[in-house]
Every structure is written in structure tokens, then in C-alpha cells.
Amino acid sequence: AQSVAQPEDQVNVAEGNPLTVKCTYSVSGNPYLFWYVQYPNRGLQFLLKYITGDNLVKGSYGFEAEFNKSQTSFHLKKPSALVSDSALYFCAVSPPSGGYQKVTFGIGTKLQVIP
Amino acid sequence: EADIYQTPRYLVIGTGKKITLECSQTMGHDKMYWYQQDPGMELHLIHYSYGVNSTEKGDLSSESTVSRIRTEHFPLTLESARPSHTSQYLCASSEGGAKTQYFGPGTRLLVL
């Protein structure tokens, strides 16, 4: 069975500092990996995904994520955090094929950017 | 503009009432999903659909039902609402192969 772990309930970072939100996964075969962001009282917004190719994936709002197959990780990063980045971040994984393309979401990590 | 819509955004209702949460998407996606999420918590898949006349239950048992008569429309119905149904309900859609899910803004339900 596939799974996603987001080991930190909350990440606090000062505005202007680099941020990292961690994600590790377990899935058979080569995974599809996603990051989503959720602002209060809103649905999830897609940030970026990894399917194949370059291990560094660039996404919306200056975010990027690095796929590390040996460590089964897909950490979300941003060089300089903004207060407006404060939100709930979800990592998700799915196998590359299958009838029902099941996507498993992590439990979410709350990012707090301190002015 | 292609998008996914949910109505109502907020609903307060009494126990025992029947309710339908609406979800529509204009992206032409075959696959649609309903998730239940308590505020600030993880998502739980409760229903999904591969296409018209296709519906399946998700990972989390739910007393709700869904229908998919048109590609763009995926309503969720609770025949008799209870306080335990209080939650946020998120609808999403995706196209085959890409798997990126696009979410609506959610319906926050409060059952008194």
C-alpha cells in the first residue's frame, strides 16, 4: 500500500529565510508526486508535480521540490519565504499506472512565516 | 474560464434534513472526487467517479451518496444530516493520465 509522511505538523520560518517542508513516501514503482497548498476556508491549489526527468521541479509562487529516489523524499522548498506563504501544505503520491489512479495525501504541514 | 465550482460555500442545517452539495467543473475532466476534511486536517476520500454513470466509494465510509449523470456534474447527497456530518467537503476533478487534481473551494457544513 502506498503512503505519505509529513513528519512536521508545523514549520515556522522568518520572512526572507529559506523554507523546507518535508515529505517522504512509500509506493511500488516510480511515483507521481505532488504538492498542494490550502489557504484558510479554501480548497487545495496545485503547486507542482514530479512525474519523470529532472529531480528538481519548479512550481507556482517560487516554490520548488526535489525528488530523491534513494531517500524516497520529495521536500518542498522556497529560497525566500513570504508572509503570504503561510498556509497548509499537502504532499501527495500516486503510482504511475492502474485502473483507479489512487492519490494518497499526507496529513498536511502548517507553514507559519513570521514577519 | 475553466474551473470547478461548489455550492453552497457554507450551510447550517438541522438534524434529519436532506441536503445536496453541488459540484460542477467546466474542464471536461472524466474523473471527479469528493473528500471530507475537518478544518486544518487531512483529506479523506469518500467518493469518486471515472465518468458518467460510474461511482465508487472511497477510503472513508460515508453515509452520503453521489451521482454522475453528466460529465460536468457530481452532486453529493445526505439523506438525513447528523451532527457527525459536520465537516468541510471538497470536490475535485482530474483528467486521465495527468492525475493532477483540481479542487473546488469547498462547502463547510454545520449540522445542529
Strand content of chain B: over 45%
- Distance between the terminal alpha carbons of chain B, to the nearest Å? 36 Å
| Distance, first to last CA of chain A | 41 Å
Count of individual helical segments of chain A: 0
Class computed from helices, strands and strand pairing of chain B:
mainly beta
Rounded to the nearest angstrom, the radius of gyration of chain B is: 13 Å
The main sheet of chain A comes to:
6 strands, mixed
The geometry of chain A reads as globular
Instruction: List segments of chain B where confidence is low: pLDDT < 50 over at least 5 consecutive residues.
Output: none
The share of residues in helices of chain B is: under 10%
Explain this structure.
- Chain A has strands at residues 3-5, 10-14, 19-21, 24-26, 32-38, 44-50, 56-58, 64-68, 73-78, 87-94, 104-105, 109-114.
- With 115 residues, chain A is an all-beta fold.
- Chain A is globular and about 40 Å long.
- The model of chain A has no long low-confidence stretch (mean pLDDT 92).
- Chain B has strands spanning 4-7, 10-13, 19-25, 31-37, 43-51, 54-57, 65-66, 76-78, 87-94, 102-103, 107-111.
- The mean pLDDT of chain B is 92.
- Chain B starts with a strand and ends with a strand.
- Chain B has no helices and eleven strands.
- The chains are: A mainly beta (115), B mainly beta (112).
- Chains A and B meet through strand 5, strand 6 and strand 10 of A and strand 5, strand 9 and strand 10 of B.
